[in-house]
Amino acid sequence: MLLNEYQWSLNPRGLHNPMVYRGPQMDRCLRLQLGWYKMVAAGNEFLGDCATLLSYNITPIIRIYLQSPGARPVDAGIADLWRQYASVGVKWFEFYNEPNLAFEWPPSGIEISPRNVSGAVGPIMENWLVFAETIISMGAYPAFPALAEAASANEGSIPWMDAMLLYLRERHRDRFRAIINNGLWMSVHPSTLNHFYQEVPGQPYLPRDPRQYNGEEGGWHFEYPYDPICQATDPGRTVFGGTRLTPYGDPNGLNAMGIAFHYRLAQWFDAGVVPVVGTEGGVYPTPLQPGEKLQQDSRYPWYDASAHGEATVAAFNWIATVAPPWHFGISLWKEDEYLDANLPALYRMERVPQIKRVVPPLSSGEPSDFSGYLGRGPGPIRGEPTFHVVILAPGLDPRWFFETAQGYWNMFRPLVATIWDYINYIPYDRSLAVTVIAPPDLADSMREVIQKQYPNVLFDLILTTGNPQSVTDVLNARVWSNRRFG
Question: Whole-model pTM?
Answer without folding.
Answer: 0.84
